[in-house]
């Protein structure tokens, strides 16, 4: 009586205990293999979206599979609960971010449960919980002690609407804020930085160790780290009273004779009244300020100003080179200065043309650009280099400059130190106070956490309200006891998520962020699943924190708490086994929804503007009766193309939704959500229910698996079923271990179920199931269970309950073992000749070759045979005079 529509809730209620049963499997001491499955923890926005459904279906299926293979599986879940959106949403809804977040967590937790996601709720963490952020602060202090955190006055990206500092990556290509869309300005503020740049080389090198990461993600990280080996040249600049050194970094030392000007950034030390020609200094500085106000991200036009200073060339000291301030020179790359070579660099070419620099050498004597390497021209100044190839010239130039001390090899990275200060309320408070006599002073470890006041109301958008909370702000200096003021900035939420996976392994520890002994035995994460959008920052920060904790001498030797732990053990604080936090990475693609647009205006159409005929997928526009433009796009409220997972689960059931998600596309690809194919999955599940109802009364579980090896006597059909079962086992195991192409796994289970459904023993109630068939059905359900846990549980229970072979849950059984010998099909090819000529070939079981009558019948009835044995004119069978069967040839 399976009714697909009711399936979800019916099964949910009969099997509401599936959750419990499986969650009871806290670590089993008899199992010594561990498997840590982690999906990127969600931001508690309040609603589960299809992207969540996708990622948690993948991670849950993988976790359940490893459980079936007998491992201790760690599959935790938590909440990335701090951050700007909570604050803005809270302002809009007039509740505190704390209340808003807590409520959302409750909602999302129950939504996850309806998806049948089986996670270790006893490991649950939330980054906004003082029990969690206490340790974020603790780690911050440890990193500070080991010299990996510092404060610096820096020019930062300032969002004038949200009134906060933005990280570079929160500023888009056009120099606008990712959130408010406002034009980002530059502003100087004292900020906290994490010294990720100390680890540039290690972060780069160790990417090669990550064999199980997608190549594209590793490449993105390499590009982000941006290693560049070049040369630093020293030019000298004569100012009013002294000679100063002006260093430039170049990747093309061979072009040094083509320098026509030098461009420095607006932040360069030479941009100072002390050094600039006194009559023009003020106006130059004003102009420079106006340049720096605009973000350096959007440099379509190259603007600059002459400083009036001249530099002398390291190899041609007589040549006087004008120094410009230019908007395209980055303050924080290389030495913040560029040797301008308009003939060979396109940016320099543009700058020169825009700023009236005409003095440059090019092949034809005209002003044109040649960016490749080539052969150096002979000019008076480079007499000895003329005629050399770019690479040879570069070597010789470097040799000579090394002798004079005016040039050296320099390795440069694009990776910048990590600015973690945020002028926001809803984040981990930075555990420092400012004392007028002691300066910035760390809060004592014993005073952690520095609690975030939660009983607040945020009246207006922007700025941190911590600044206005006098009671909270004013405190005592931990060092001298005098009055001090708390740091009112909070941490970037990427700090929280850079270490949360450690805390999952020891979330109740109240002495330390985690016990390193546990980390050593349970890390790294075996598989980490999440969106490609986190390929760079989150993963890089996590890799950095792991390496920083490893090398942090403070964590190892200086902390009082840690020293206590250390006493009993050899080297208890070493997390040295964990060089990299995530062994394997699986990045899942986005879920796109069907999107309708007006063909004339390209306006997104709302569902109520459309009209459907005959339940077809393609609607008409009500008002114009025209066909809309159809595309699949990222689901979003503004495109009216979102699909609410709650309604999908309510209509089709969690299992069908999960099956569909995994069947529709391999995890890495974009998934185009459509209702047509979800119905396909629903029908297949219904078919499984039909198969089970046909056999459940007569089902006899296998007691003795040895019988399976006794396959010689089986019929061809039984062998075929066994072969299909083994093929599925092989594929399914490989999918869960390596390829994660769940679509192929489901396709193979569908093939197997089709085979089973046609078996005479299944369709005829009076025939008993053969052992190969029992085995196939049993294996099918176990292989299905990681993906569709409640359906397979229900069907499995029906088969086993009458036989006392039901162990309370399907998850108490084992993943089927592959029988390699079962994969060898004993099929052979039968070559059919007519009048001595080969006509066609048929593949069939070799046992058939022993039975002439059966063989003849199969050959003559085969589809191919019809072409040859039927008279085209009469449509009748051509009589066969003589048949010869030659076996084993
Ligand atoms: C002269 C030159 C000639 C350059 C030429 C390139 C081609 P990568 O390879 O990415 O490291 N550069 C150096 N510092 C800069 C800064 N602070 N802001 C903007 N540009 C800067 O890039 C190195 C090149 O970027 C350097 O080599 C320099 O231009 C420029 F035919 O020097 B080159
Ligand atoms: Zn003090």
UniProtKB/TrEMBL annotation:
InterPro entries: aa-tRNA-synth_I_CS, aa-tRNA-synth_Ia, Leu-tRNA-ligase, Leu_tRNA-synth_edit, M/V/L/I-tRNA-synth_anticd-bd, Methionyl/Leucyl_tRNA_Synth, Rossmann-like_a/b/a_fold, tRNAsynth_Ia_anticodon-bd. Residues 415-590, 633-665 form the Aminoacyl-tRNA synthetase class Ia domain. Residues 36-172 form the Methionyl/Leucyl tRNA synthetase domain. It is found in: Cytoplasm. GO terms for cellular component: mitochondrion. Pfam families: Anticodon_1 (PF08264), tRNA-synt_1 (PF00133), tRNA-synt_1_2 (PF13603), tRNA-synt_1g (PF09334). Residues 222-363 form the Leucyl-tRNA synthetase editing domain. The keyword Signal does not apply. One of its GO terms (molecular function) is ATP binding. It catalyses: tRNA(Leu) + L-leucine + ATP = L-leucyl-tRNA(Leu) + AMP + diphosphate. Its EC number is 6.1.1.4. This is leucine--tRNA ligase. It comes from Smittium simulii.
